[in-house]
Structures are given as structure tokens and as C-alpha cells.
Specification:
- The protein has helices spanning about 1-10, 15-35, 45-55, 65-80, 90-115.
- The radius of gyration is 14 Å and the shape is globular.
- Helices cover about 75% and strands about 0% of the residues.
- Helix 2 packs across helix 4 and helix 4 crosses helix 5 (about 90-115).
Length: about 120
């Protein structure tokens, strides 16, 4: 749902909202992964950190996925809270495309590892 919204927002040149939706798609996937290893994190930064600790450092996912998640978080903050700073459509499109990749990789992992999704 979030990624479909992000795609529609990109098509309508709404960069900040598209980045927010793309970020939340990845954020909730990271939270799901942490749930499966009994880790409950309360903050966005904590989620990114624990995702890196448990899924990147252990070699389950490539480091680029932590970078993708971090970039999306940082740009979401810019779009949501930094008045006067916008997000260029090219960057927003890149983040949405990376979110599609991130979500696809996580779903594939969950299907393989836990026979779910």
C-alpha cells in the first residue's frame, strides 16, 4: 500500500510525500524483521540501528540496504520537518525505486526463512 501510494505521488510530482511513503514501507519491513527475532524498538533511529546490527552485520542483507533505509529516513525528516527545504523529484524517484527493491528483498527473505508472506 505504501509503495503504491509512493508511486502515485511521484507521478504527481509530490516528492516529499512520496519519500515519506517509501520510507514507511521500508521502516515497517525492518520492524517486521526485528519482530521475527523478538526485538521491539520504539524509535526510528533505533529500528535502523538494530536492523543494521542484526541483519547487515550478520550478512543476511547487503550493507546497501542499511544505507537505503538511512537515506530514506534522513530525507523523510527533511521533507516532513525542514521548512523551506524540498526534495528534488529525481532524488525522490531514486528513493521510491530503492524502497521497491528493499521491500522485495525483505519479502523474499521472509518467505524463505519463515515460510510466510
Amino acid at each position: 500500500m505504501y509503495l503504491k501510494d509512493a508511486d502515485l505521488l511521484i507521478a504527481n510530482n509530490s516528492s516529499e510525500s512520496a519519500v515519506s511513503r517509501a520510507y514507511y514501507a521500508m521502516y515497517y519491513m525492518a520492524k517486521a524483521l526485528l519482530f521475527f527475532v523478538d526485538i521491539n524498538v520504539k524509535t526510528h533511529q533505533g529500528t535502523v540501528m538494530m536492523f543494521g546490527k542484526h541483519f547487515i552485520k550478520n550478512g543476511i542483507f547487503e550493507k546497501k540496504y542499511n544505507n537505503i533505509l538511512t537515506k530514506a529516513l534522513n530525507q523523510r525528516i527533511v521533507g516532513d520537518y525542514e521548512i523551506g527545504k524540498g526534495i528534488e523529484l529525481d532524488l525522490a524517484t531514486e528513493i521510491v525505486n530503492e524502497a521497491h527493491e528493499f521491500v522485495t528483498v525483505v519479502i523474499k527473505y521472509l518467505k524463505t526463512k519463515y515460510k510466510t508472506a
